[in-house]
Amino acid sequence: MIKENKPSAIGKVEPREIVQEMKTAYLDYAMSVIVARALPDVRDGLKPVHRRILYAMYEMGLTHGAKLRKSAGVVGEVLGKYHPHGDISVYDALVRMAQDFSMRYPLIDGQGNFGCFTKDTEIQLTDGRALSFGQLIEEQKKGERHWTFSFNQKEEKIEIAEIKRPRLTRENAELVEVVLDNGAQIRCTPDHRFMLQNGTYQEARYLSQGDFLMSMLEYTKNKTSAFEAEVLGVADSTGASELSSIPILANQAVLSSVSTEPWTARELHPSTSGRQLRSRDYPPPTAPLLYLRKVECIKVNNVRFLEEKTDVYDITVDPWHNFALAAGIFVHNSIDDDPAAAMRYTESRMSRAGEELLEDIEKNTVDFIDTYDGMRQEPKVLPSPLPQLLLNGTLGIAVGMATNIPPHNLAEVADAVAFLIENPKADTEDLFQFIKGPDFPTGGTIFNKQEMIAGYSQGKGPIVVRGKAEVVENDKKNQIIISEIPFQVTKSTLVEQFANLVQEKKIEGIRDIRDESDKDGMRIVFDLAREAQPQKILNRLYKFSDLQKTFHLNLLALVDGIQPKVLSLAEILLLFLEHRRNVVSRRTQWELDRAKERAHILEGLVKCLGSIDEVIKIIRRSDDRDDAKKNLMARFKLTEIQANAILDTKLSQLAKLERKKIEEELVALKATIKELTLILANPKEIDRIIAKELEVAKAAYGDQRRTKVVVQGLGEIAEEDLIPQEDTVITLTQGGYIKRINPATYKIQKRGGKGIVGMKTMGEDIVEHFLYGQTHDSLMVFTDSGKVFQIPVYEVAEGTRVSKGRGLLNFIDLTPQDKVLTLFAIGKEDIVAGKKYLAMITKDGIMKKTLLDDFKNVRRSGLIAVTLKKGDRLQGAQKTTGEDDIIIVTKHGKSIRFKESQVRAMGRQAAGIHAIRLKKGDEVMGMDIIPGLPSRLFILSENGYGKSTDVKEYRIQSRGGSGIKTANVTSKTGNLVFAKVLEGPEEDLIVISRKGQVIRTPVTSIPKISRSTQGVRFMRLDEGDKVVSAACM
Question: d(Cα 903, Cα 920) in Å, to the nearest integer?
């Protein structure tokens, strides 16, 4: 017999395609995350968890004036009644609402992370001293560093650790006094944690008499050796709780002789000299030194609460976050960017601003829905008289979407809402006359108003944020002081970034970095080397660290609690206004209903006031309440509500009713009813109330903007912004090795000397090109194929005087067939000086003039600069204004001067025109521009002879002539190799030979003689050596 399948009592199983099931399940999950977890509601600016925390606190009576309650109790209330998720997520959300560096206007008042000590509490240092918190602060402000002992709980040993950031942490804090059996008295906050003998921590207020604390060591020796004083930095000690030590070798024989009585222990310790201890690379790898100690147990005698209050202090000690007090015990320290203490340690309540969000929630202003278990109800949204979404912003990552809204200034937002009420068609740009942009709780500076307007109009966009840094320059030292950092950047992480940049040599010139932050605010100090350029270092900090960061604006929020939408600034405020109009209308209606109900009751009382005795008699004669109600309704023509109100009043109170008070209250209620009715009938009245309430909130919570706004945009920090603008000399060898060097390396010598080694060449390699420029210039490299390449001068590696440099192929894509013919530099000052053209000359005397703009963007593979005839090569190039005089010099001593206007501008690939007619065997050696100022032409021959001649001796000729004699070239002088127009006596001339010899001499040492002479010896050369080139500074 076949059994019939009966449906299950708990449902049935249906076959389904896994793809369809996954799609449906994932969509359900995505909607749950989007609507119920990750995104804020545009109306109150809150995610569900934040809304539930505030409502739970409201229900618990934790208003801003209430006593603080344990955060664990709040979290339990939220989890049990409203939020069926993990306790960590709830507590993290609660903590964030209490952080004044995360929230512009914190919604929760929080108290209690880790405790702190009074200013006079002393810390044990490794150098034998015991300094108070106050003394540590003063010494570290002077740049001193300190080390203490810290207990490694993982390996159960004592280590040396640096003391960081001694600082004031709380003002006017409550105190307890912990008295130890060694006589020490320690004053600290009740929540400060002491290390027990078993390595765990206990808050001061929960310590009991007889508790054993983890104690410092009592060493077995009273006299410190010279080794200890130098290597360990530990001083002699004789006091009961002071330190002395014996370093011994780690071998089994010694260990076997150690006492085995209780509390005797051993520890490994780094071997460190006083010099190493001050080193930035401290600590070194652990060395095999053992320290024997006899630990004396220290017990708690008693703990008592003190009536006095005072400021308290703390330090940071990485990595174990505990340190030794001079009292001989270990205590916990606070941790920069440490998570909040466990919820059992912290206490919280709503702040005044947080309480504002729930104002009038009891007046039916918002809808309520059932909680997850159906046992109670919770609000769908809070009344929120403040535009919380903009005031504190939010960050949330949902499924396929995310939101990132920055905080704003309440006063500015309130003014914008008031303007929007009067001008409902206003757009985001109109609102920016009030809202200047984000106002981060951490301050900083934001840039580019127009870009921000565009971002707020579209709902998305970048906002560049910089920390506040000040350069302090004085005779003793230069400093950079950072007092504000970008939003969502952790100070400890930022300081670590700075240290890494220095260690990796990405930033040079920083001698020390100190965190001097205290109760007065943030203060990170950089001490700079004397020769360092502060602004350049600051630019590098902006570029390579989070001192400059981009906030990615994304104004995504839920509309009507269900639809995620990217909104503009104007849309956010309009939706907030719509919500407030609904809240105020519902509140007004609720108040109107209550007023009418009360007036109705009072009208019944007025009817009975003249016959109170009769009312009492009717009530007494009636059989029961229903009978009394009927009798009253019949006698005085009351409604059931009025009759019930009289019956709910005690007889003794009925007898005391006063007609005048009731009638006055009734009159006032009727006026209120009239006013409320008019408000509901007139939307402008509702808007007026909204504006007034915002004005009140502005007066109560409004403050000055913290984030500075710079209207102009902040361009990307170019690499050249990070490089100091300074003079440099560039050399290139025939073998293709290039380098730059500071001209100051070459000391000034007398004319006619041999010079010094200026470059080390390899084998048969010789120096071929030599020029002067500045680090921000662009180096133009011309080859025999007519191509031009471009290299930022600062990219050329700076070398020493005798270094050979780096291969040019590292910078540009030269082929093996390419030969470099000419180098010259173009700087920004050339553009300012009106330089518009690039004039080029070949060895055969062909000239071409091209717009400089044609060479703005030269790719790594180069551009065609000039078309060369076979056998010709580019010999020189100069920047011109278009109205200059040009002078060309040949190697055999001829020159021609003509107007630049005789040469028209051509395209890059043009060949050019004849500039000078050359004799057989002669070729162009160089070209220069003659300025309007009095000047002279300096020429130099390959055998080291030079001279200068007044340019007045060179008459202006027509382009294409054979020119006139400029030097008497002989076998003694050799061919000319360099020509330069000199403008002033302040210049120096640097000359280099093929073998790398360099001489630097003042221009004033060069005699001014006539054109036809051969000149005087400028540089004495070794046999076989020749002058290659020169450069003027």
Answer: 24
CATH for the stretch 117-219+293-332: 2.170.16.10
Q: Report the 3 state secondary structure along 866-912.
A: CCCCCCCCEEEEEEECCCCEEEEEECCCEEEEEEHHHCCECCCCCCC
Our CA angle for 125, 338, 95, nearest 5°, is 140
Q: Which residues contact 960 (CB under 8 A, 6 or more apart)?
A: 913, 914, 915, 916, 917
Integer CA distances (angstroms), 492 to 488, 497, 518, 522, 693, in order: 12, 9, 14, 11, 41
Q: Report residue 241's pLDDT band, with 50, 70 and 90 as the boundaries.
A: very low
The pLDDT value recorded for residue 739 is: 84
Q: How close are the terminal C-alpha atoms of the chain, in Å?
A: 114
pLDDT tens digits, 845-857: 999 888 888 877 7
Q: What is the mean pLDDT of residues 9-20?
A: 79
* H or E element, residue 308: strand 298-316
Q: What is the third-level CATH fold of 468-546? A: Gyrase A; domain 2 (3.30.1360)
Q: Give the integer Cα–Cα distance in Å for 1019 and 1033.
A: 18
Q: Report the CATH number of the 723-1032 domain.
A: 2.120.10.90
Element (H, E) at 586: helix 569-609
Q: Are strands 201-203 and 193-195 parallel, antiparallel or unpaired?
A: antiparallel
Average pLDDT over the chain reads: 82
Q: Give domain limits for the chain.
A: 24-111+345-403, 117-219+293-332, 468-546, 573-701, 723-1032
Give the integer Cα–Cα distance in Å for 545 and 532.
19
The phi, psi pair for 582, rounded to 5°, reads: -65, -45
Condensed to tens digits (0 to 9), the pLDDT of residues 448-473 reads 999 999 999 999 999 999 999 998 87
Average pLDDT value for residue range 602-617 = 86
pLDDT average, residue stretch 293-314: 82
Confidence band (pLDDT; 50, 70, 90) for 695?
very high
One fold for both 117-219+293-332 and 573-701?
no
Q: What's domain 24-111+345-403's architecture?
A: Alpha-Beta Complex (3.90)
**What pLDDT shows up at residue 115?**
65
3-state SS of 130-167 is: EEEHHHHHHHHHCCCCEEEEEEECCCCEEEEEEEEEEE
Give the 3-state secondary structure percentages of the chain, helix then strand then coil, rounded to 5: 30, 30, 40
- Give, in words, the CATH class of 573-701: mainly alpha
Residue 658 binned pLDDT confidence (cut-offs 50, 70, 90): confident
Cβ count near 223 (within 10 Å): 10
**Residue that has been written with the tokens 């009585």 in this structure:** 261
Cα 1031 to Cα 990: distance, rounded to the nearest angstrom: 5
CB atoms within 10 A of CB 775: 20
Pick from 30, 74, 33: nearest CA to 52:
74
Highest mean pLDDT (candidates 189-193, 280-284, 475-479, 624-628): 624-628
Predicted model pTM: 0.62
**Which region among 300-309, 411-420, 734-743, 880-889 has the lowest average model confidence (pLDDT)?**
734-743
CA 53, chain centre distance (Å): 31
Q: Which residue has the tokens 């509601």?
A: 41
Query: What sign has the CA pseudo-torsion 240, 245, 250, 256?
Result: negative
Ramachandran angles phi, psi of 980, nearest 5°: -150, 135
Cis before 319? omega within 30:
yes
Sorting pLDDT into bands at 50, 70 and 90, what band is 155?
Answer: confident
Token duo for residue 516:
């001097």
Tokens describing residue 697: 């909130």
Q: Which residues are catalytic, by number?
A: 345
